[in-house]
Automatic annotation (TrEMBL):
Annotated region described as Disordered, given as residue ranges: 119-205, 221-242
Residue ranges the record marks as coiled coil: 283-366
Lineage: superkingdom: Eukaryota
UniProt protein name: Component of the polarisome
Alphabetical UniProt keywords: Coiled coil
Keyword Coiled coil: yes
Domain GIT Spa2 homology (SHD): 31-61, 80-110
PANTHER family: PROTEIN SPA2-RELATED, SPA2 PROTEIN
Length: 676
């Protein structure tokens, strides 16, 4: 800005004087410090824009209506530059006056040098108008003594186009806001508003070219002034002498051309330095990349060497292992042979163990009444074994085996699977004992005196049978509690219940005696009557209880559940067949060997019971078929497989089976009150 401050001051002073001569009002005195708040860059941009607008009004006011847009300026600055054209002449003169005063305040040394070197002739007259007290007067003698120098300092006149160069003093984008604030205030005072500008930075070569442009501008103005002069002034002898001094003008022109050539050479040098700097910078980057690559290459080489060492070690180990393979293979063959011998030995030991268990089981289940009593003199039979006994020996043996099975199951690892089966076996053996009593009673119903019992013993039989049923229920309850306790209850409680049941059986055997010969025992099914309806219903109730216990388990045992379901289905079928016979006898009025109470019999109720039992039998059969199909789908001969277990664990299967069992139990209980 210092390089152009003197030029801006001269041009603005001449412009203000010319405008006053053309009739414009005197510029108003500016407020002190009005532009002092602008930063140097902001003021430079404002002065540059006012200077450009001043030249446009002097030279191209008709051809160019406003300042053209410059691409390297911010759009807002271009807008503010264009709005300078909307200011009226007096208001623009005031703006130029304010900028001119601020130039003198900011650059007094430049202004003083410029005025000392040579001031415009208009400047003295403009100062004499007393527009501002800070302008200095330059005597005319100085102009007369050195007209050429004055032409060098004079402002450009018409014929010079500022915008042909396309350049202006350097600007800064960062100063746009302050400059915009001032211009906006100025335009609001003068024309109601103005745009804001934004500046952009130029490079060093742009500054150099700006100096060249200003030098060319001064030269052009000097030539133009020497040839044409000012149309608004009266020529003087000194001015005419100046126009004739062409030699001096040629010297000035040569001097400026030399200066332009020197500046262009300097620009070339700067460009060369810039290229050298860029080349050195690129070389540094290339060297740095090369060092990084070499460092990475060394790291990869070390890693490669380490991996090669590991590979060599692995290969050596592999060779050693391959050398040891024959010996290891022989040792493996020996171990296989030894394992085969051990397996064979294990099978032999298992076979011996099974035989020993069978002998022990046979020894435990052999009672005194099952011994061979052919020689009565040598081995007299016990007091409760005779030819007129009621209890079959097979029933007693079955009870003994079932008790042994129960005591073994409660100590086994799979107690959840084996204990319900042992319980069912005990219930079945007790049913056989009661069946023997009932069969003997039916067989000798017509001849009560055939019973080899006293009247007191005959009266004790019902109480003994009831006691047997009570102890059996206690045992079943103990088994259920033991299963649900998850091993918390002691085994002794279950053994005590089994002991009490065995005591009841012993009392019954002592009372009724055991038949010496199985063939001489009373048949369990009479020739006239069918199977015992009471026993069938008892078997159904007991079987349903066992089956429900198995179903409620989280993972039911397939074998136990399948066997229990088969038993319940058989009992239901037997009950249905017996009920049909008994119902027909009741409807026909036959009372001989009838098991139903004729007074309580109702045909409609009987038909409903038969239909319900038939439906329940069909549903249970369907469930049994589902288990069989699951076993076939698994392709396994064993029932205990994954598919069957998954089926038994399904909630839908459990719900259907439980519903069928509940229906069967309901109709069975409806039948019990009709039994005599």
């Amino acid at each position: 800005m210092e390089a152009t401050a003197g030029q801006y001051h001269r041009e603005m002073t001449n412009f203000i004087y010319d405008e006053i001569e053309l009739g414009a009002a005197m510029p108003s005195k500016s407020e002190p410090g009005k532009l002092s708040r602008l930063s140097p860059m902001q003021f430079q941009e404002l002065a540059t824009d006012v200077y450009d607008e001043l030249n446009r009004r002097k030279h191209d006011a008709h051809d160019i209506p406003f300042l053209p847009v410059r691409d390297h300026y911010h759009p807002k600055r271009n807008q503010a530059r264009q709005k300078l054209a909307t200011l009226s002449r007096p208001k623009f003169v005031d703006l130029a006056h304010d900028v001119n005063e601020e130039l003198k305040r900011r650059f007094p040394h430049k202004i003083e040098v410029s005025q000392g070197f040579g001031a415009a002739s208009h400047g003295s007259s403009y100062e004499s108008l007393n527009t501002t007290p800070t302008y200095n007067s330059v005597p005319n003698q100085h102009y007369q003594s050195n007209p050429v120098q004055y032409s060098q300092q004079a402002a450009p006149k018409p014929g010079f186009n500022q915008y042909q160069s396309g350049r202006s003093p350097p600007t800064s984008t960062g100063s746009a806001q302050g400059y915009h604030g001032y211009t906006h205030s100025k335009f609001s005072q003068h024309s109601g508003g103005a745009g804001s500008g934004s500046m952009s930075a130029n490079t060093a070569d742009d500054d150099a070219l700006d100096s060249v442009d200003r030098a060319a501008h001064d030269l052009s103005y000097a030539i133009h002034s020497s040839q044409h002069g000012s149309s608004s002034r009266v020529p003087t002898p000194d001015q005419r002498a100046m126009r004739n001094s062409n030699n001096e003008v040629e010297k000035l022109k040569y001097e400026y051309e030399m200066r332009i050539a020197a500046m262009r050479k300097r620009v070339g040098q700067l460009e060369s330095q810039l290229l050298d700097y860029r080349g050195d910078h690129l070389q540094d980057r290339a060297n740095e990349q090369l060092e990084n690559e070499e460092r990475m290459n060394r790291m990869l080489s070390q890693k490669n060497e380490r991996l090669e060492n590991e590979l060599r070690i692995l290969r050596e180990q592999l060779v050693a292992i391959k050398a040891d393979m024959p010996a290891l293979r022989q040792e493996n063959d020996k171990l296989r042979q030894e394992r085969a011998r051990f397996l064979e030995r294990e099978r032999e030991m298992r076979s011996m163990l099974d035989e020993a268990r069978a002998k022990v089981r046979k020894l435990k289940t052999t009672s005194v009444f099952a011994l061979d009593h052919g020689d009565a003199d040598l081995v007299p039979p016990p007091i409760f074994v005779n030819s007129g006994g009621v209890i079959r020996p097979s029933s007693v043996r079955a009870f003994q085996e079932s008790v042994e099975r129960l005591l073994s199951a409660v100590r086994s690892e799979s107690v959840q699977d084996e204990l319900p089966v042992a319980q069912a076996a005990i219930e079945g053996s007790c049913s056989e004992l009661k069946a023997d009593v009932h069969a003997y009673k039916v067989a000798n119903a017509n001849d009560p005196g055939a019973w080899p019992l006293t009247s007191e013993a005959k009266q004790t039989i019902p109480r003994a049978v009831d006691d047997l049923d009570g102890k059996l229920r206690n045992l079943v309850e103990a088994v259920n509690k033991h299963l649900n306790s998850m091993g918390v209850l002691p085994i002794s409680l279950l053994e005590a219940a089994a002991s009490h049941l065995a005591t009841s059986v012993v009392d019954l055997v002592k009372l009724l005696k055991v038949c010496y010969d199985e063939n001489k025992a009373a048949p369990r099914v009479a020739s006239v009557s069918g199977p015992s309806l009471e026993m069938s219903t008892d078997n159904i109730i007991a079987g349903i209880q066992d089956l429900l216990q198995l179903v409620r388990a989280s993972s039911p045992a397939p074998n136990a559940l399948y066997s229990a379901l088969q038993s319940v289905i058989g009992f239901v079928r037997e009950t249905i067949d017996t009920c049909q016979v008994e119902f027909n006898m009741a409807e026909s009025g036959v009372s001989a060997n009838a098991q139903l109470n004729a007074d309580m019999y109702d045909p409609d109720t009987a038909r409903r019971i038969l239909d319900g039992l038939e439906k329940g039998h069909l549903q249970l059969t369907d469930q049994l078929n589902d288990i069989s199909e699951a076993q076939e789908a698994a392709g396994d001969n064993e029932l205990d497989n994954e598919i069957v277990r998954e089926l038994l664990s399904e909630m839908v299967f459990k719900q259907r089976l439980t519903s069928a069992l509940v229906d069967v139990a309901k109709y069975t209980k409806s039948l019990i009150p009709w039994l005599e």
